[in-house]
Design a protein that fits this description.
With 500 residues, this protein is of the alpha/beta class. Helix content is 38%, strand content 19%.
Length: 500
């Protein structure tokens, strides 16, 4: 990740999960220095440490990360670049600091790193402080210090002769919920419709923006398991279908062990999701959620079911009735213990045939390369790609940011984006349009006439009034006049779209 003065929590995924990294995971020098850049960028932006950083596809907590970077520092000093095994270590119990600003020489910071490793290996946690020539240094400052050491190594291919230290001025590190033994309450929780609706809105937003399903949810001030939450949703839908608006009590429902699914993305009819809700609502206390339920469209797992119910209740809250059907995609996401991870959307870029295949692909790939420097996962979906087909592609996750390059402003294409048909396919995905510098400007344009090569809209369609307002009123953003000189400007805009 680059050191930019903007929010860059990209490969640093802040969630409540804290102990899901296997001790058999190996981390290379390259992976660790990349992670160091991410942590540094996150700290500069947020003035605190992230809950975890993703390394080699695994979530690594800050204590685990500090163990890795100090061990790496010691190894690099001895000339070794061997991969390091992730170790499950806990946070310090009472971190303290009495540090003055100054420099710590290489010999000293290497010895401090060795002392930290010895303490962690013996005690299974980070020390409350480490003694240095500048005073006692606490956990947060130590993370920052050795992060900067590895960043220097990444750039210069050697360890620095000294490293600057200063008292910690950022926010104190708070271990993520779930990372210190937090578990769902065993108490029976009574939930009012209002309290459940608040949780529905929160979880739905979380799932749609992150493509993650939490394993724990806060409802009525209590933390409950996602299986208990699913049962609450099912009971709420069953009650709504019967015309009831009553409080609900949680049951002791445990999670599925090996969830599986065969459904295809599509509409699930009301009769189907009502029947499904009833079966889940009727689960007795002490039951385990099945690995799947069989409905008319196939086998559906608990994440897809939870998302289905979230959408059903949201529809009811907006329309005072349950929907006749709900579009439900196949689940492609992951899980996280809590609900504090930042939004990090994968980006899929498509393009009209604007110049030629080589030029058009180069334009896409240039954007992808810059996004990847910021830690954003981005894909070239293709030149001449169908902007409807990508919405139908079940491999494109629900939180994707789809960027479409247009060489011209087609009134029919823009008009289609505002239709219920298009929006139902788009679902929770974000779509951002980029018009190249050869396209007609739509900002402030009163009328965009039908394109001369429009061979797909009905003959009655003649154009689109106020196309800029039409897009924005339907929730879309766009960029005009793009050329290669505006690459960095566009990338920063797309970065913000991918992290919001």
């Amino acid at each position: 990740m680059l050191f930019l003065a903007i929010s860059l929590p990209i490969t640093v995924d802040i969630v409540s999960a804290a102990t899901n990294t296997s001790t058999t995971t190996k981390v290379t020098v390259s992976q660790l220095t990349t992670a160091a850049s991410s942590v540094n960028s996150f700290y500069k932006t947020n003035k605190r440490l992230p809950n975890y950083v993703t390394i080699s596809g695994k979530q690594v907590t800050m204590p685990q990360y500090l163990y890795l970077i100090t061990t790496e520092t010691s190894q690099l000093n001895s000339g070794s670049t061997a991969a390091i095994t992730v170790k499950n270590v806990n946070v310090p119990t009472k971190p303290t600091e009495n540090l003055k600003k100054g420099n710590i020489q290489k010999t000293e910071y290497v010895n401090v790193a060795k002392n930290l490793k010895k303490f962690a290996d013996t005690n299974g946690r980070m020390p409350n402080y480490l003694s240095t020539s500048q005073g006692n240094i606490k956990f947060e400052t130590t993370v920052d210090t050795y992060t900067r050491i590895l960043i220097f190594y990444k750039t210069n291919k050697r360890l620095p002769n000294y490293v600057a230290v200063a008292p910690w001025t950022g926010k104190s590190y708070t271990p993520p919920e779930g990372g210190t033994g937090t578990t769902p309450t065993t108490d029976v929780v009574t939930v009012t419709p209002t309290q459940l609706n608040q949780a529905v809105a929160s979880v739905k937003t979380y799932v749609e923006s992150r493509n993650k399903m939490p394993t724990m949810v806060t409802v009525a001030g209590k933390t409950i398991g996602i299986s208990q939450f699913l049962q609450l949703l099912a009971q709420r839908i069953t009650d709504l279908n019967s015309g009831k608006n009553v409080t609900i009590k949680t049951k002791k429902i445990t999670a599925a062990t090996t969830p599986s699914e065969t459904i295809k993305a599509g509409n699930i009819l009301k009769a189907d999701f009502i029947s499904l809700a009833k079966s889940i609502a009727n689960l007795s206390s002490g039951s385990k959620v099945p690995n799947y339920w069989t409905i008319t469209t196939g086998k559906i797992r608990y994440e897809s079911t939870t998302y289905l119910f979230l959408k059903a209740i949201t529809f009811y809250n907006n329309n005072k009735r349950l929907p006749n059907y709900i579009y439900t995609p196949r689940w492609t996401g992951t899980t996280s213990t809590g609900m504090t991870s930042p939004i990090i959307r994968p980006v899929y870029i498509i393009s009209d045939k604007i110049s030629n295949n080589a030029t058009d692909n180069a334009r896409i790939n240039a954007v992808i390369a810059e996004l990847k420097k910021l830690g954003i996962t981005a894909y070239n979906y293709g030149v001449g790609a169908n902007n409807i087909a990508i919405l139908n592609n079940t491999n494109v996750p629900i939180n994707a940011l789809i960027v479409q390059f247009f060489g011209g402003a087609c009134a029919a294409t823009l008009n289609e984006m505002g239709t219920s048909y298009y929006k139902s396919l788009k679902d929770a995905k974000k779509v951002f349009t980029v018009f190249t510098d050869g396209a007609k400007k739509i900002t402030g344009l009163a009328w965009l006439e039908r394109a001369h090569d429009d061979n797909f809209s009905p003959a009655s369609f003649t154009g689109l009034a106020n196309p800029d307002k039409y897009l924005t009123n339907n929730g879309y953003k766009y960029y005009e006049g793009y050329n290669s000189s505006k690459l960095q400007e566009l990338v920063q805009i797309l970065y913000k779209e991918a992290t919001s």
